[in-house]
Specification:
seven-stranded antiparallel β-sheet; globular; eight-stranded mixed β-sheet; 18% strand; alpha/beta; Glucose Oxidase, domain 3; 14 helices; 23% helix
Length: 608
Protein backbone atom coordinates (compact mmCIF):
# COMPACT_ATOMS: atom_id res chain seq x y z
CA UNK A 1 0.00 0.00 0.00
CA UNK A 2 1.44 3.37 -0.95
CA UNK A 3 0.25 5.56 1.90
CA UNK A 4 0.02 9.22 0.90
CA UNK A 5 1.54 10.29 4.18
CA UNK A 6 4.69 8.33 3.53
CA UNK A 7 5.27 10.52 0.48
CA UNK A 8 4.97 13.75 2.45
CA UNK A 9 7.76 14.97 4.70
CA UNK A 10 6.16 15.74 8.03
CA UNK A 11 8.50 17.97 9.99
CA UNK A 12 8.50 17.99 13.77
CA UNK A 13 11.31 20.52 13.95
CA UNK A 14 11.02 24.17 13.10
CA UNK A 15 13.40 26.93 14.14
CA UNK A 16 15.97 25.69 16.64
CA UNK A 17 17.94 27.76 19.13
CA UNK A 18 19.88 24.71 20.28
CA UNK A 19 22.17 23.10 17.72
CA UNK A 20 21.48 19.84 15.92
CA UNK A 21 24.58 18.10 14.55
CA UNK A 22 24.60 15.13 12.19
CA UNK A 23 28.26 14.22 12.64
CA UNK A 24 30.66 14.48 15.60
CA UNK A 25 33.21 16.57 13.71
CA UNK A 26 30.62 19.34 13.48
CA UNK A 27 30.62 19.79 17.26
CA UNK A 28 33.12 22.57 17.94
CA UNK A 29 33.24 22.20 21.70
CA UNK A 30 34.04 18.74 22.97
CA UNK A 31 33.38 19.64 26.62
CA UNK A 32 29.96 19.97 28.24
CA UNK A 33 28.65 19.99 31.78
CA UNK A 34 26.47 16.96 31.12
CA UNK A 35 26.60 14.33 28.39
CA UNK A 36 23.47 12.19 27.94
CA UNK A 37 23.74 8.99 25.93
CA UNK A 38 20.50 8.12 24.17
CA UNK A 39 17.66 10.45 23.08
CA UNK A 40 14.99 7.95 24.08
CA UNK A 41 12.11 8.08 26.53
CA UNK A 42 14.31 8.96 29.51
CA UNK A 43 17.13 10.78 27.71
CA UNK A 44 14.89 13.46 26.22
CA UNK A 45 13.35 14.15 29.64
CA UNK A 46 16.77 14.50 31.26
CA UNK A 47 18.06 16.77 28.48
CA UNK A 48 15.03 19.03 28.65
CA UNK A 49 15.00 19.30 32.44
CA UNK A 50 18.75 19.88 32.90
CA UNK A 51 18.84 22.53 30.17
CA UNK A 52 16.21 24.50 32.10
CA UNK A 53 19.21 25.94 33.96
CA UNK A 54 20.88 28.37 31.52
CA UNK A 55 24.21 28.08 33.35
CA UNK A 56 24.86 24.52 32.15
CA UNK A 57 25.69 23.13 28.73
CA UNK A 58 24.13 19.78 27.77
CA UNK A 59 25.03 17.39 24.95
CA UNK A 60 22.56 14.66 23.96
CA UNK A 61 24.04 11.91 21.77
CA UNK A 62 21.66 9.74 19.71
CA UNK A 63 22.68 6.71 17.63
CA UNK A 64 19.66 7.08 15.34
CA UNK A 65 18.37 9.95 13.25
CA UNK A 66 15.95 12.81 13.72
CA UNK A 67 12.23 12.12 13.97
CA UNK A 68 11.41 14.09 10.84
CA UNK A 69 10.94 13.39 7.13
CA UNK A 70 9.23 10.12 6.27
CA UNK A 71 9.97 8.86 9.79
CA UNK A 72 7.71 11.58 11.18
CA UNK A 73 4.67 10.17 9.37
CA UNK A 74 5.33 6.68 10.73
CA UNK A 75 5.82 8.10 14.20
CA UNK A 76 3.13 10.77 14.37
CA UNK A 77 0.06 9.16 12.79
CA UNK A 78 -1.62 7.02 15.47
CA UNK A 79 -2.96 4.58 12.88
CA UNK A 80 0.60 3.77 11.84
CA UNK A 81 1.85 3.01 15.35
CA UNK A 82 3.94 -0.14 15.23
CA UNK A 83 4.78 0.11 11.54
CA UNK A 84 8.21 1.54 12.38
CA UNK A 85 9.23 -1.90 13.64
CA UNK A 86 11.66 -3.55 11.23
CA UNK A 87 12.46 -0.25 9.49
CA UNK A 88 15.52 2.04 9.71
CA UNK A 89 14.09 3.66 12.88
CA UNK A 90 14.33 0.29 14.69
CA UNK A 91 17.56 -1.22 16.04
CA UNK A 92 16.32 -4.48 14.47
CA UNK A 93 17.59 -6.76 17.19
CA UNK A 94 16.80 -10.48 17.31
CA UNK A 95 16.76 -12.74 20.35
CA UNK A 96 18.57 -15.99 20.72
CA UNK A 97 16.55 -19.17 20.12
CA UNK A 98 13.96 -19.38 22.89
CA UNK A 99 13.53 -22.86 24.31
CA UNK A 100 10.24 -21.78 25.92
CA UNK A 101 8.89 -20.74 22.51
CA UNK A 102 9.72 -23.96 20.65
CA UNK A 103 13.16 -22.69 19.70
CA UNK A 104 11.90 -19.60 17.88
CA UNK A 105 14.03 -16.47 17.54
CA UNK A 106 12.02 -13.30 18.16
CA UNK A 107 12.28 -9.94 16.46
CA UNK A 108 13.17 -7.50 19.25
CA UNK A 109 12.25 -3.91 18.39
CA UNK A 110 13.84 -0.89 20.09
CA UNK A 111 13.64 2.70 18.85
CA UNK A 112 16.60 3.82 16.72
CA UNK A 113 15.45 7.42 16.34
CA UNK A 114 15.04 10.55 18.42
CA UNK A 115 12.34 9.70 20.94
CA UNK A 116 13.59 6.12 21.16
CA UNK A 117 10.96 3.50 21.82
CA UNK A 118 8.40 6.20 22.66
CA UNK A 119 8.46 6.87 18.90
CA UNK A 120 7.73 3.29 17.79
CA UNK A 121 5.76 1.67 20.62
CA UNK A 122 2.04 0.94 20.93
CA UNK A 123 1.49 4.28 22.69
CA UNK A 124 -0.07 2.85 25.86
CA UNK A 125 0.21 4.99 28.99
CA UNK A 126 -0.38 2.85 32.09
CA UNK A 127 1.51 3.68 35.28
CA UNK A 128 0.81 0.40 37.04
CA UNK A 129 0.05 -0.11 40.70
CA UNK A 130 1.20 2.08 43.57
CA UNK A 131 2.93 -1.03 44.95
CA UNK A 132 5.20 -1.07 41.90
CA UNK A 133 6.75 2.20 43.04
CA UNK A 134 6.70 1.25 46.70
CA UNK A 135 8.73 -1.84 45.74
CA UNK A 136 11.19 0.44 43.95
CA UNK A 137 11.51 2.42 47.18
CA UNK A 138 12.02 -0.72 49.26
CA UNK A 139 14.56 -2.30 46.92
CA UNK A 140 16.56 0.93 46.70
CA UNK A 141 16.22 1.94 50.34
CA UNK A 142 15.00 5.38 49.25
CA UNK A 143 11.45 6.38 50.18
CA UNK A 144 11.62 9.08 47.51
CA UNK A 145 10.80 6.39 44.94
CA UNK A 146 7.50 5.51 46.67
CA UNK A 147 4.16 6.20 45.03
CA UNK A 148 3.21 8.99 47.42
CA UNK A 149 6.55 10.76 47.09
CA UNK A 150 6.46 10.53 43.28
CA UNK A 151 3.14 12.32 42.86
CA UNK A 152 4.91 15.59 42.06
CA UNK A 153 6.74 13.97 39.17
CA UNK A 154 3.64 12.20 37.89
CA UNK A 155 1.76 15.47 37.68
CA UNK A 156 4.53 17.38 35.88
CA UNK A 157 4.90 14.61 33.29
CA UNK A 158 1.46 13.97 31.80
CA UNK A 159 -1.91 15.52 31.08
CA UNK A 160 -5.18 14.09 29.82
CA UNK A 161 -6.48 15.53 26.55
CA UNK A 162 -9.80 14.94 24.77
CA UNK A 163 -9.89 12.80 21.60
CA UNK A 164 -9.90 14.51 18.22
CA UNK A 165 -13.73 14.38 18.00
CA UNK A 166 -14.17 15.70 21.56
CA UNK A 167 -16.16 12.61 22.59
CA UNK A 168 -17.01 12.95 26.27
CA UNK A 169 -14.82 10.83 28.54
CA UNK A 170 -16.91 11.46 31.65
CA UNK A 171 -17.06 8.31 33.76
CA UNK A 172 -14.13 6.74 31.92
CA UNK A 173 -11.23 8.34 33.82
CA UNK A 174 -10.48 10.31 36.97
CA UNK A 175 -9.26 13.83 36.13
CA UNK A 176 -7.84 14.21 39.64
CA UNK A 177 -5.04 11.71 38.93
CA UNK A 178 -3.82 13.50 35.81
CA UNK A 179 -1.61 16.57 35.75
CA UNK A 180 -0.48 19.39 33.49
CA UNK A 181 2.72 17.94 32.04
CA UNK A 182 3.98 18.10 28.46
CA UNK A 183 3.20 14.48 27.60
CA UNK A 184 -0.28 14.26 26.09
CA UNK A 185 -2.53 11.26 26.74
CA UNK A 186 -6.14 10.47 25.98
CA UNK A 187 -8.90 7.91 25.60
CA UNK A 188 -10.57 6.44 22.55
CA UNK A 189 -12.57 8.64 20.15
CA UNK A 190 -14.80 5.67 19.22
CA UNK A 191 -16.57 3.16 21.46
CA UNK A 192 -17.26 -0.24 19.91
CA UNK A 193 -19.60 -3.07 20.84
CA UNK A 194 -16.67 -4.97 22.31
CA UNK A 195 -15.96 -2.12 24.72
CA UNK A 196 -19.59 -1.83 25.80
CA UNK A 197 -19.72 -5.54 26.55
CA UNK A 198 -16.53 -5.41 28.61
CA UNK A 199 -17.99 -2.64 30.73
CA UNK A 200 -21.38 -4.39 30.92
CA UNK A 201 -19.70 -7.52 32.26
CA UNK A 202 -18.06 -5.48 35.02
CA UNK A 203 -21.51 -4.15 35.90
CA UNK A 204 -23.13 -7.58 35.90
CA UNK A 205 -20.31 -9.37 37.73
CA UNK A 206 -18.46 -6.61 39.55
CA UNK A 207 -17.45 -8.84 42.44
CA UNK A 208 -15.42 -11.01 40.08
CA UNK A 209 -14.62 -8.54 37.30
CA UNK A 210 -14.39 -5.12 38.99
CA UNK A 211 -14.48 -1.84 37.09
CA UNK A 212 -11.56 0.51 37.69
CA UNK A 213 -12.35 4.15 36.91
CA UNK A 214 -8.72 5.00 36.18
CA UNK A 215 -5.92 2.47 35.88
CA UNK A 216 -3.42 5.32 36.33
CA UNK A 217 -4.68 6.03 39.86
CA UNK A 218 -2.35 3.59 41.61
CA UNK A 219 -5.14 1.01 41.91
CA UNK A 220 -3.51 -1.67 39.82
CA UNK A 221 -6.37 -4.14 39.35
CA UNK A 222 -9.62 -4.33 37.43
CA UNK A 223 -11.18 -3.48 34.08
CA UNK A 224 -11.03 0.02 32.67
CA UNK A 225 -10.46 2.36 29.76
CA UNK A 226 -6.99 2.60 28.28
CA UNK A 227 -4.99 5.80 28.04
CA UNK A 228 -2.67 6.18 25.06
CA UNK A 229 0.00 8.77 24.36
CA UNK A 230 -2.11 10.57 21.78
CA UNK A 231 -2.98 14.25 21.94
CA UNK A 232 -4.30 16.67 19.34
CA UNK A 233 -4.71 13.75 16.96
CA UNK A 234 -1.03 12.72 16.96
CA UNK A 235 1.40 10.56 18.92
CA UNK A 236 3.04 12.34 21.83
CA UNK A 237 6.64 11.23 22.42
CA UNK A 238 9.50 12.18 24.71
CA UNK A 239 10.86 14.05 21.71
CA UNK A 240 7.73 16.03 20.82
CA UNK A 241 6.81 16.67 24.46
CA UNK A 242 10.24 17.43 25.92
CA UNK A 243 13.17 17.60 23.52
CA UNK A 244 11.96 19.72 20.62
CA UNK A 245 10.40 22.42 22.82
CA UNK A 246 13.75 22.64 24.65
CA UNK A 247 15.78 22.77 21.43
CA UNK A 248 13.47 25.42 20.06
CA UNK A 249 13.96 27.72 23.04
CA UNK A 250 17.42 27.11 24.55
CA UNK A 251 20.93 27.64 23.26
CA UNK A 252 22.55 25.49 25.98
CA UNK A 253 21.30 22.16 24.59
CA UNK A 254 22.96 20.41 21.64
CA UNK A 255 21.82 17.23 19.91
CA UNK A 256 24.28 14.98 18.08
CA UNK A 257 22.62 12.49 15.71
CA UNK A 258 23.65 9.32 13.86
CA UNK A 259 26.50 8.81 16.31
CA UNK A 260 27.06 5.84 18.55
CA UNK A 261 28.89 5.95 21.86
CA UNK A 262 31.48 3.21 21.62
CA UNK A 263 32.68 3.31 25.23
CA UNK A 264 32.94 5.36 28.37
CA UNK A 265 36.32 6.80 29.29
CA UNK A 266 37.77 7.13 32.78
CA UNK A 267 40.21 9.81 33.88
CA UNK A 268 43.79 8.56 34.30
CA UNK A 269 43.84 5.42 36.43
CA UNK A 270 40.77 6.26 38.48
CA UNK A 271 37.23 4.94 38.16
CA UNK A 272 35.84 8.37 37.37
CA UNK A 273 33.96 8.18 34.07
CA UNK A 274 33.40 11.65 32.65
CA UNK A 275 34.28 11.03 29.04
CA UNK A 276 32.90 9.13 26.06
CA UNK A 277 34.21 7.93 22.73
CA UNK A 278 31.81 8.10 19.80
CA UNK A 279 31.79 7.26 16.11
CA UNK A 280 29.39 6.85 13.19
CA UNK A 281 30.53 3.38 12.12
CA UNK A 282 32.93 0.64 13.10
CA UNK A 283 35.54 1.99 10.70
CA UNK A 284 34.94 5.71 11.23
CA UNK A 285 37.11 8.06 13.26
CA UNK A 286 36.52 8.04 17.01
CA UNK A 287 35.79 11.37 18.71
CA UNK A 288 36.12 12.23 22.38
CA UNK A 289 33.64 14.24 24.44
CA UNK A 290 34.07 15.19 28.08
CA UNK A 291 31.63 16.09 30.86
CA UNK A 292 32.73 18.38 33.65
CA UNK A 293 29.92 17.16 35.90
CA UNK A 294 28.64 13.72 34.84
CA UNK A 295 27.65 11.32 32.09
CA UNK A 296 24.06 10.06 32.08
CA UNK A 297 23.56 6.72 30.37
CA UNK A 298 20.04 6.41 28.91
CA UNK A 299 20.62 3.90 26.14
CA UNK A 300 17.89 1.52 27.28
CA UNK A 301 17.69 -2.01 28.63
CA UNK A 302 19.72 -3.37 25.71
CA UNK A 303 22.07 -0.48 24.96
CA UNK A 304 22.99 0.52 28.51
CA UNK A 305 24.54 -2.81 29.62
CA UNK A 306 26.24 -3.11 26.24
CA UNK A 307 27.96 0.26 26.65
CA UNK A 308 28.90 -0.55 30.25
CA UNK A 309 30.50 -3.86 29.26
CA UNK A 310 32.30 -2.25 26.32
CA UNK A 311 33.80 0.10 28.90
CA UNK A 312 35.01 -2.73 31.13
CA UNK A 313 32.14 -2.36 33.63
CA UNK A 314 30.30 -5.63 34.07
CA UNK A 315 30.96 -9.33 34.58
CA UNK A 316 34.75 -9.54 34.42
CA UNK A 317 34.87 -12.86 32.60
CA UNK A 318 32.37 -11.70 29.98
CA UNK A 319 34.24 -8.52 29.09
CA UNK A 320 37.62 -10.26 29.13
CA UNK A 321 36.33 -12.94 26.77
CA UNK A 322 36.04 -10.33 24.00
CA UNK A 323 39.40 -8.72 24.73
CA UNK A 324 38.27 -5.85 26.95
CA UNK A 325 40.18 -5.01 30.12
CA UNK A 326 37.93 -5.33 33.15
CA UNK A 327 37.69 -2.00 34.97
CA UNK A 328 35.05 -2.98 37.49
CA UNK A 329 33.57 -6.43 38.07
CA UNK A 330 29.80 -5.82 38.32
CA UNK A 331 28.13 -9.20 37.73
CA UNK A 332 24.59 -7.80 37.48
CA UNK A 333 25.33 -5.71 34.39
CA UNK A 334 23.34 -7.37 31.59
CA UNK A 335 21.81 -9.93 33.98
CA UNK A 336 18.24 -10.14 35.30
CA UNK A 337 16.65 -9.31 31.93
CA UNK A 338 12.88 -9.44 32.21
CA UNK A 339 10.36 -9.04 29.44
CA UNK A 340 6.65 -9.64 28.97
CA UNK A 341 5.10 -11.70 26.21
CA UNK A 342 1.88 -11.19 24.31
CA UNK A 343 -0.38 -13.39 22.22
CA UNK A 344 -3.92 -13.04 20.90
CA UNK A 345 -7.08 -15.12 20.69
CA UNK A 346 -9.71 -14.27 18.06
CA UNK A 347 -13.48 -14.56 17.59
CA UNK A 348 -15.85 -13.66 14.77
CA UNK A 349 -18.53 -11.33 16.11
CA UNK A 350 -21.96 -10.02 15.26
CA UNK A 351 -21.22 -6.31 15.27
CA UNK A 352 -19.02 -3.60 13.85
CA UNK A 353 -15.28 -3.90 14.33
CA UNK A 354 -12.38 -2.48 12.33
CA UNK A 355 -11.72 -5.70 10.43
CA UNK A 356 -13.42 -4.55 7.23
CA UNK A 357 -11.70 -1.15 7.40
CA UNK A 358 -8.26 -2.70 7.74
CA UNK A 359 -8.97 -5.04 4.83
CA UNK A 360 -9.78 -2.05 2.60
CA UNK A 361 -6.53 -0.44 1.54
CA UNK A 362 -8.37 2.43 -0.14
CA UNK A 363 -10.18 3.22 3.10
CA UNK A 364 -6.93 3.15 5.07
CA UNK A 365 -5.29 5.45 2.52
CA UNK A 366 -8.23 7.85 2.69
CA UNK A 367 -8.04 7.93 6.49
CA UNK A 368 -4.37 8.84 6.35
CA UNK A 369 -5.06 11.52 3.74
CA UNK A 370 -7.70 13.01 6.06
CA UNK A 371 -5.21 13.02 8.93
CA UNK A 372 -2.73 14.95 6.81
CA UNK A 373 -5.29 17.68 6.21
CA UNK A 374 -6.46 18.31 9.78
CA UNK A 375 -5.37 15.45 12.07
CA UNK A 376 -8.89 14.05 12.37
CA UNK A 377 -10.61 10.78 11.54
CA UNK A 378 -9.87 7.19 12.36
CA UNK A 379 -6.13 7.64 11.72
CA UNK A 380 -6.02 10.21 14.52
CA UNK A 381 -7.28 8.00 17.29
CA UNK A 382 -6.68 4.33 16.66
CA UNK A 383 -3.48 2.39 16.19
CA UNK A 384 -3.12 -0.56 13.87
CA UNK A 385 -0.88 -2.36 16.33
CA UNK A 386 -3.30 -2.29 19.24
CA UNK A 387 -6.87 -1.04 18.59
CA UNK A 388 -7.37 -1.44 22.33
CA UNK A 389 -9.92 0.69 24.17
CA UNK A 390 -10.55 -1.48 27.24
CA UNK A 391 -8.08 -3.49 29.26
CA UNK A 392 -7.82 -5.32 32.55
CA UNK A 393 -5.15 -6.31 35.05
CA UNK A 394 -5.91 -9.38 37.17
CA UNK A 395 -4.36 -11.68 39.73
CA UNK A 396 -4.31 -15.43 39.99
CA UNK A 397 -6.93 -16.88 42.33
CA UNK A 398 -5.77 -16.81 45.95
CA UNK A 399 -5.90 -20.61 46.06
CA UNK A 400 -3.82 -21.05 42.91
CA UNK A 401 -1.10 -23.65 43.34
CA UNK A 402 1.15 -21.38 41.25
CA UNK A 403 1.39 -18.96 44.17
CA UNK A 404 3.05 -21.70 46.20
CA UNK A 405 6.03 -21.11 43.91
CA UNK A 406 6.20 -17.55 45.21
CA UNK A 407 4.40 -14.35 44.26
CA UNK A 408 6.44 -12.14 41.89
CA UNK A 409 3.91 -9.29 41.85
CA UNK A 410 4.76 -6.12 43.76
CA UNK A 411 1.88 -6.73 46.19
CA UNK A 412 -1.72 -7.82 46.56
CA UNK A 413 -2.88 -4.82 44.48
CA UNK A 414 -0.60 -5.73 41.58
CA UNK A 415 -1.43 -8.01 38.64
CA UNK A 416 -0.16 -11.35 37.47
CA UNK A 417 -1.64 -11.06 34.00
CA UNK A 418 -3.37 -8.66 31.62
CA UNK A 419 -6.18 -8.98 29.07
CA UNK A 420 -6.71 -6.32 26.41
CA UNK A 421 -9.73 -6.18 24.10
CA UNK A 422 -9.14 -5.37 20.43
CA UNK A 423 -11.65 -4.56 17.71
CA UNK A 424 -9.79 -6.31 14.89
CA UNK A 425 -7.78 -9.35 13.97
CA UNK A 426 -6.03 -8.30 10.80
CA UNK A 427 -2.47 -8.59 9.60
CA UNK A 428 -2.29 -6.68 6.32
CA UNK A 429 0.88 -7.12 4.25
CA UNK A 430 1.24 -3.33 4.45
CA UNK A 431 1.27 -3.59 8.23
CA UNK A 432 3.53 -6.63 8.35
CA UNK A 433 5.50 -5.25 11.29
CA UNK A 434 2.55 -5.16 13.66
CA UNK A 435 2.00 -8.01 16.05
CA UNK A 436 -1.63 -9.00 15.52
CA UNK A 437 -2.74 -11.59 15.08
CA UNK A 438 -0.09 -14.02 16.24
CA UNK A 439 3.08 -14.57 14.31
CA UNK A 440 2.66 -17.24 11.59
CA UNK A 441 -1.13 -17.25 11.88
CA UNK A 442 -3.12 -16.45 8.74
CA UNK A 443 -5.87 -13.95 9.49
CA UNK A 444 -9.31 -14.04 7.87
CA UNK A 445 -10.03 -11.41 5.24
CA UNK A 446 -13.81 -11.31 5.60
CA UNK A 447 -16.22 -10.85 8.49
CA UNK A 448 -15.99 -8.84 11.70
CA UNK A 449 -13.51 -10.09 14.25
CA UNK A 450 -12.34 -9.21 17.74
CA UNK A 451 -9.16 -10.25 19.48
CA UNK A 452 -8.11 -10.39 23.08
CA UNK A 453 -4.44 -10.22 23.91
CA UNK A 454 -2.97 -12.04 26.89
CA UNK A 455 0.11 -10.84 28.78
CA UNK A 456 1.94 -12.42 31.70
CA UNK A 457 2.46 -9.22 33.66
CA UNK A 458 4.76 -10.48 36.43
CA UNK A 459 7.04 -13.12 34.88
CA UNK A 460 9.66 -14.95 36.92
CA UNK A 461 11.88 -15.93 33.99
CA UNK A 462 15.24 -14.12 33.91
CA UNK A 463 17.44 -13.69 30.87
CA UNK A 464 20.49 -11.65 29.92
CA UNK A 465 22.19 -9.23 27.54
CA UNK A 466 25.78 -10.05 26.60
CA UNK A 467 28.30 -8.42 24.29
CA UNK A 468 29.64 -10.53 21.45
CA UNK A 469 32.69 -8.46 20.56
CA UNK A 470 34.57 -5.32 21.55
CA UNK A 471 32.71 -3.32 18.89
CA UNK A 472 29.70 -1.19 19.76
CA UNK A 473 28.43 -1.79 16.24
CA UNK A 474 27.95 -5.52 16.77
CA UNK A 475 24.59 -6.37 18.32
CA UNK A 476 24.71 -8.06 21.71
CA UNK A 477 23.03 -11.38 22.35
CA UNK A 478 19.55 -10.96 23.79
CA UNK A 479 18.08 -13.88 25.72
CA UNK A 480 14.81 -13.03 27.52
CA UNK A 481 14.43 -16.73 28.51
CA UNK A 482 10.68 -16.65 27.91
CA UNK A 483 8.56 -19.29 29.67
CA UNK A 484 11.44 -21.03 31.35
CA UNK A 485 9.64 -21.24 34.70
CA UNK A 486 6.55 -23.18 35.74
CA UNK A 487 5.00 -20.00 37.14
CA UNK A 488 5.14 -18.15 33.81
CA UNK A 489 3.64 -20.84 31.62
CA UNK A 490 1.10 -21.75 34.30
CA UNK A 491 0.02 -18.11 34.59
CA UNK A 492 -0.41 -17.86 30.83
CA UNK A 493 -2.63 -20.93 30.86
CA UNK A 494 -4.70 -19.58 33.74
CA UNK A 495 -5.05 -16.18 32.04
CA UNK A 496 -6.53 -17.79 28.93
CA UNK A 497 -8.91 -19.90 31.02
CA UNK A 498 -10.03 -16.73 32.82
CA UNK A 499 -10.61 -15.02 29.48
CA UNK A 500 -12.73 -17.90 28.16
CA UNK A 501 -14.80 -17.76 31.34
CA UNK A 502 -15.21 -13.97 31.06
CA UNK A 503 -16.48 -14.27 27.48
CA UNK A 504 -19.02 -16.89 28.54
CA UNK A 505 -21.00 -14.35 30.56
CA UNK A 506 -24.39 -13.09 29.36
CA UNK A 507 -23.16 -9.76 27.98
CA UNK A 508 -21.49 -11.64 25.12
CA UNK A 509 -24.53 -13.74 24.15
CA UNK A 510 -25.38 -13.24 20.49
CA UNK A 511 -22.31 -11.11 19.89
CA UNK A 512 -19.64 -13.81 19.66
CA UNK A 513 -20.40 -16.04 16.67
CA UNK A 514 -17.47 -18.42 16.57
CA UNK A 515 -13.84 -18.64 17.62
CA UNK A 516 -10.88 -18.77 15.30
CA UNK A 517 -10.21 -22.49 14.62
CA UNK A 518 -7.04 -22.53 16.69
CA UNK A 519 -8.92 -20.97 19.60
CA UNK A 520 -11.73 -23.51 19.34
CA UNK A 521 -9.14 -26.22 19.94
CA UNK A 522 -8.12 -24.81 23.35
CA UNK A 523 -9.96 -27.37 25.47
CA UNK A 524 -7.21 -28.60 27.82
CA UNK A 525 -4.32 -27.10 29.74
CA UNK A 526 -1.92 -28.93 27.44
CA UNK A 527 -3.52 -27.48 24.31
CA UNK A 528 -3.42 -23.97 25.80
CA UNK A 529 0.24 -24.35 26.73
CA UNK A 530 1.05 -25.52 23.21
CA UNK A 531 -0.79 -22.46 21.81
CA UNK A 532 1.21 -20.12 24.05
CA UNK A 533 4.55 -21.62 23.10
CA UNK A 534 3.65 -21.55 19.40
CA UNK A 535 2.37 -17.98 19.17
CA UNK A 536 3.65 -15.82 22.04
CA UNK A 537 5.81 -12.87 21.03
CA UNK A 538 7.58 -10.04 22.82
CA UNK A 539 5.51 -7.18 24.17
CA UNK A 540 8.71 -5.13 23.83
CA UNK A 541 8.96 -4.34 27.54
CA UNK A 542 12.54 -5.28 28.56
CA UNK A 543 13.77 -4.11 31.97
CA UNK A 544 16.23 -4.74 34.80
CA UNK A 545 19.64 -5.25 33.14
CA UNK A 546 21.25 -2.57 35.36
CA UNK A 547 18.90 -2.84 38.29
CA UNK A 548 18.73 -0.60 41.32
CA UNK A 549 19.63 -1.71 44.86
CA UNK A 550 20.55 -0.27 48.22
CA UNK A 551 23.93 1.42 48.58
CA UNK A 552 24.98 -1.30 51.02
CA UNK A 553 23.93 -4.19 48.77
CA UNK A 554 26.65 -6.11 46.98
CA UNK A 555 24.29 -6.87 44.11
CA UNK A 556 22.73 -4.46 41.68
CA UNK A 557 24.29 -1.90 39.34
CA UNK A 558 23.06 1.49 40.55
CA UNK A 559 22.29 2.86 43.98
CA UNK A 560 19.15 4.77 44.98
CA UNK A 561 20.48 7.94 43.32
CA UNK A 562 20.98 5.95 40.06
CA UNK A 563 24.76 6.45 40.22
CA UNK A 564 26.69 3.39 39.06
CA UNK A 565 28.19 1.55 42.00
CA UNK A 566 31.96 1.53 42.32
CA UNK A 567 32.61 4.38 39.91
CA UNK A 568 32.23 8.17 39.86
CA UNK A 569 30.66 10.52 37.36
CA UNK A 570 28.26 8.00 35.81
CA UNK A 571 24.50 7.70 36.27
CA UNK A 572 21.89 5.48 34.56
CA UNK A 573 18.35 6.66 33.83
CA UNK A 574 16.21 4.25 31.80
CA UNK A 575 14.20 1.04 32.16
CA UNK A 576 17.32 -1.01 32.85
CA UNK A 577 17.37 0.20 36.48
CA UNK A 578 13.89 -1.13 37.31
CA UNK A 579 14.00 -4.09 39.70
CA UNK A 580 11.41 -6.19 37.84
CA UNK A 581 8.96 -6.26 34.94
CA UNK A 582 6.45 -3.49 35.43
CA UNK A 583 2.88 -3.79 36.68
CA UNK A 584 1.66 -1.45 33.94
CA UNK A 585 3.44 -0.42 30.74
CA UNK A 586 7.07 0.66 31.10
CA UNK A 587 7.05 3.96 29.24
CA UNK A 588 4.86 5.58 31.92
CA UNK A 589 7.15 4.45 34.71
CA UNK A 590 10.28 5.47 32.78
CA UNK A 591 8.89 8.99 32.32
CA UNK A 592 8.24 9.25 36.06
CA UNK A 593 11.67 7.85 36.99
CA UNK A 594 13.33 10.28 34.57
CA UNK A 595 11.49 13.26 36.05
CA UNK A 596 12.74 12.46 39.55
CA UNK A 597 16.21 11.55 38.26
CA UNK A 598 16.50 15.00 36.67
CA UNK A 599 15.63 16.52 40.05
CA UNK A 600 18.25 14.37 41.79
CA UNK A 601 20.90 15.51 39.32
CA UNK A 602 19.93 19.15 39.74
CA UNK A 603 20.16 18.87 43.51
CA UNK A 604 23.51 17.10 43.33
CA UNK A 605 24.95 20.03 41.37
CA UNK A 606 22.92 22.81 43.04
CA UNK A 607 21.17 23.71 39.80
CA UNK A 608 17.97 25.71 39.57
Amino acid sequence: MAFPSLLILVSLVHFCVGSIFTAPEQVASKTYDFIIIGAGTAGCVIAARLSEDPSVKVLLIEAGGLDDGTAAATISIPLLAGTGVGTPIDWNYTTTSQTGLNGRQIQYPRGFVVGGSSSINGMIYSRGSSEEYDRLATVSGDSGWSWNKLQKYIFINEQHTPPWNNRSNVGEFNPRVHGKGPLLTGLTPTVFGTDRRVIQTTSDHGHKYPFNLDLNSGNGLGFGWLHTTVGNGARSTSSSAYLHPALNSRSNLDLLLNTQVTRLVSTSCSRTFKGVKAAQSATAQQYSFNATKEVILSAGTVGTPQILMLSGIGPAKQVQNVGIISTLDLPDVGANLQDQTILALQWQVNGRTLSSFLNDEAAVGAAIAQWEINRTGIAAGNTVCIFVDTICFLRLPNNSTLLKLGDPAAGSNSPHFQLAFLVSTIRLPSFANTFFPNVNQIAPTTGNWMSVSVVVQSPTSRGSINITSSSAFDHPTINPAYYTTAFDIGTAVQAIKTLLEFLSTSAWNGFILEPFPAVAALTTDASIEAYVRAFADTLKHPTSTAKISKRSDKGGVVGPDLLVKGVKGLRIVDASILPAAVAGFPQAEVYIVAERAADLIKRAWSLT
